[in-house]
Write a structure and sequence with these properties.
The protein is built from 8 helices and 2 strands. The protein has 2 domains: 1-76, no CATH class; 97-123 and 153-206. A hairpin with an 8-residue loop joins β1 (127-132) and β2 (141-146). By secondary structure, the chain is mainly α. The chain has helices spanning 2-18, 22-27, 29-50, 55-73, 78-93, 95-116, 157-167, 184-223, and strands at residues 127-132, 141-146. The chain starts with a helix and ends with a helix.
Amino acid sequence: MSLAILILVIQEMRQFWKTHSRLEYFLSGYNWIDISAFVFPIITAIQLKYKWDYFNEVCSVSTLILWTHAILRLRVISYFGVTLETIIQLCKNVTSVLFIMLLVILAFTQAYIVLLRLEPDEYFQENYGGNYGVDPDDPSGEISVANVSADNGFHNWFKAFSQVWFFIYGVWDPLNDGDAGDSKFLMCISILFSLITVLIFFNLVIALMSSTVEEVKKRGKKVW
């Protein structure tokens, strides 16, 4: 591992000194990934030695960065390089649409927070009740069961945003049970969210990618 990090550091230093414009070097996303590929393993090793907190989280990020770095290394091979450049150019083409989509998701996240932040956990929990009896000679009674696993996840921005993000993929569990599932106003907002994000934005991104794929493929070959 130390040898691999040393090789990466030497390669990056050579690339830095050979670059004509220092500003251009730091504006390149490739270079930031290259730098992260040896910085994060060093941080991980330091964390392991001194037993700092969040070791697993940093290891997870380091793993993703190293895999991304390894995949981008394939761009020196023509067969993979053109494909990678085509994917990057496609992403650049739909960046503005994705950014507006992100703003829409943030807007709906705040709307859900304003609407639901004061509701108790019971508002999202399904309650079940009924009668029970063992046999005619024994007394019978009533039983009530509540699904206490659900809670109000709209108290803070991070959890609320993650829940709204999963709404895009059809995961509506936080709003299906209890009084939340019976709220007509909440249902209308959720339907509006689905119409805007899934039907409009997703199809718009697919249409943009389909209409420009040949042009982007040629641009990817040129860039490579």
